[in-house]
Amino acid sequence: MITLRHERPADVKAREALLDEAFGKTRTRNTSQRLREGRLPADGLSLVAAEGRRVIGTARLWHVTCASGQPALLLGPVAVAADCRNRGIGAALVRRALRDAHRLGHGAVMLVGDPPYYSRFGFSVEKAAAVRLPGPFERHRLLALELKPGTLDGAAGLIRASGRPVPQPAIAAAA
Questions:
Q1: In the chain, N or C terminus with fewer CB closer than 10 Å?
Q2: Per the domain annotation, does 166 fall within a domain?
Q3: Beta bridge partners of residue 110, listed in sequence order
Q4: CATH of residue 99
Q5: Dist. CA 67–CA 161, nearest whole Å
Q6: How far is CA 123 from CA 28, 83, 120, 126, 146, in A?
Q7: pLDDT tens digits for 100-113?
Q8: Could you give the angle at the alpha carbon of 123 between the alpha carbons of 158 and 45, nearest 5°?
Q9: What DSSP assignment string belongs to 79-133?
Q10: Rounded mean pLDDT of 110-126?
Q11: Single pTM value for the model
Q12: Domain count of the chain?
């Protein structure tokens, strides 16, 4: 039985292995990663799909802000284990992530992804047409979805990370 649930600390190692399998070890070099680096995902918006104790899917959302001031979430990465694909798990994770984001009061979600896949959830290039990422990206793959109509009206300029930073360990001062 597959369950969708919030990620737990014990899931981190399995999630990272799943992402490496799905996207390769170079995944940390992509432009979207620049917006996630050193940041915590949005509260309550780190999801996994589990089959028994095995993590077989992941989806996370991150706080970002457009240069013109509009807040949004960045979805990704979304991944499903190779032997579990084509079972609707990725779609279920995306739907759950969007439903939870809406329930928590967020107004818009952006992502870099495959337009034919994400269009079925309502994502399109139109609301992301005037925004850009902090690095190279394929314009037709930058997509957006308004959870609340009008949230991205006038959105323009560089998208930047706006989520909480990962806490840094305290370093004792040398005497």
A1: C
A2: no
A3: 74, 144
A4: 3.40.630.30
A5: 11
A6: 24, 27, 7, 9, 8
A7: 999 999 999 999 99
A8: 75
A9: EE-GGG-SSSHHHHHHHHHHHHHHHTT--EEEEES-HHHHGGGT-BSGGGTTEE-
A10: 97
A11: 0.93
A12: 1
> Which residues, other chains included, contact 126 with Cβ-Cβ below 8 Å and sequence gap of 6+?
144
**Cross-strand pairs, 6:** 47
Is the pLDDT at 175 greater than 70? The verdict is no
If you average pLDDT over residues 115-143, what whole number do you get? 96
Which residue shows structure tokens 């609301």? 127
Does 172 map to a domain?
A: no
Quote the tokens at residue 46.
């780190």
**b/e map of 19-46 (b: 16 or more CB within 10 Å)?**
beebeeeeeeebbbebbbeebebbeebb
